[in-house]
Amino acid sequence: MVFSSFSFLFVFLPITLILYFIIPKDKITLKNIVLLVMSMIFYTLGETKYFGIMILSIVVNYVLALFMKRRKCVLILAIVFNIGLLCLFKYVNFFICTGNALFHISLAPLNLTLPIGISFYTFQIMSYIIDVYKGGVKPQKNIINLATYIVLFPQLIAGPIVNYKTVEDDLKSRKQSWSDVAEGLRKFIIGLGKKVIIANNVAILADTIFNMNFFELGSGLILIGAIAYALQIYFDFSGYSDMAIGLGKIFGFHFLENFNYPYTAKSITDFWRRWHISLSSWFREYVYIPLGGNRCSKIKWLRNILVVWMLTGFWHGANWNFILWGLYFAIILVVEKIWIHKIIEKLPSIVAHVYSIVLILYGWIIFRVEDIHGIIYIFKAVIMFKKSDWVEFIGNNGEIVYVVPFFILGLIGCTPIVKKIKDKIISKMKNVGLYISDVGLVIIFGITIVFILSLSYNPFIYFRF
């Protein structure tokens, strides 16, 4: 089940809200039980086969945390268990296929289905376990509260990655208000609009281009395809994050923002402060800093960056293109930090933006194209400039014309322009401005329902990670 589905919007969510809000505000344990049960139902509707794996993760980590008390052996056991489960389902086939190719053997792949959301909830569990070991949080003795944290449906499937310490108090004694509910609904509708109105439509253009024979693509088509995919993945993932944050606020949880207009960045360093903030923060806190961060020799610092970004790429998928994608950004970040950060700071804003966008688009090409030979060809075609046959392309793909308005809307929407206009209206017109803004959101919600009912829609990109 996805947030942008009729069954979620008009069946699952209303039932959950009714059950949750009929319970008095001071009965937090009962509210947590409702959220836990409904979250488990939500998960089983999309992942019946591996429901037991999640239950096993909850029970094992609950017990291990109780026996932690700064015992390194327990921490190692917990990390091995959690990473082991993730590797079993997500990476074992990659290792088998790589081993077969390197050593000329023929081990049969396991072909296990990847449990939905395992990359996200594994990292959440590990943040809890590591913080308990370091003494940053106390072991959660109430298994209902811990299970609620792990399987909470707003952020279970595709994040944002929520560290336990940021919601520890909310699990015990969260304060709820109708203003939070209203703000949460606004955030949810914005995210829903991002996904259904923009992401799903620009995906048609991105998929049409990147599903073609790579060797027939010209430079212009590649550029448009890369921009379309950049818009698709941004509005898809930031849309989901907005919906998750909005739903969390409705239920009294306060998740941190996951995106901050990343395509307005003036450097790649700046981009990664704005994109998938929860993942970057997780790797910084639990991998980069423990390795020594930048408070070590230059060689070790370079090693730390390469390790973190290789893992960041590998986290996204068991394929060489994701590892290459991580290393690509690692190299750029190292170059920026050592040699050109002062030059970038002195560049005119427009030049810095262009520099960043070009490198980001190259990165998305690596991310989107899983075939290494295809990546090499596309890079060559862009650099050497190969003419595109636009007449033939449009003639064979007439539906692309329909996508153009959404492509333009995406280009505008990935900047703060709309938000600035809205904030200006509200600041000048006060309550009337807020009323106008809410009417606009109601219209957006109505449009999304029309799209959901009349068109097929894509699952969220990050579900498969």
What does this structure look like?
The protein has helices at residues 6-21, 28-46, 51-66, 72-90, 92-103, 118-134, 143-151, 153-156, 164-173, 178-210, 219-250, 268-274, 277-291, 298-316, 320-346, 349-368, 372-384, 390-396, 400-413, 417-429, 431-454. The protein is an all-alpha fold and 465 residues long. The chain folds into two domains: 6-173, no CATH class; 180-266 and 347-464, no CATH class. Helix 7 (143-151) crosses helix 9 (164-173). It is globular and about 65 Å long.
Domain tally: 2
**How many β strands by DSSP?**
0
Strand content: under 5%
Mean pLDDT: 90
- Based on CA inertia axes, which overall geometry fits? globular
Distance between the termini: 16 Å
Contiguous helical run count: 21
State the helicity in percent bands.
over 70%
Oligomeric status: single chain
Order of helical and strand elements: HHHHHHHHHHHHHHHHHHHHH
Profile the largest sheet.
Answer: none
Radius of gyration: 23 Å
Low-confidence region ranges:
none
Question: What structural class should be given to the helix and strand makeup?
Answer: mainly alpha
Give a brief description.
The protein has 465 residues and is mainly α. The protein has helices spanning 6-21, 28-46, 51-66, 72-90, 92-103, 118-134, 143-151, 153-156, 164-173, 178-210, 219-250, 268-274, 277-291, 298-316, 320-346, 349-368, 372-384, 390-396, 400-413, 417-429, 431-454.
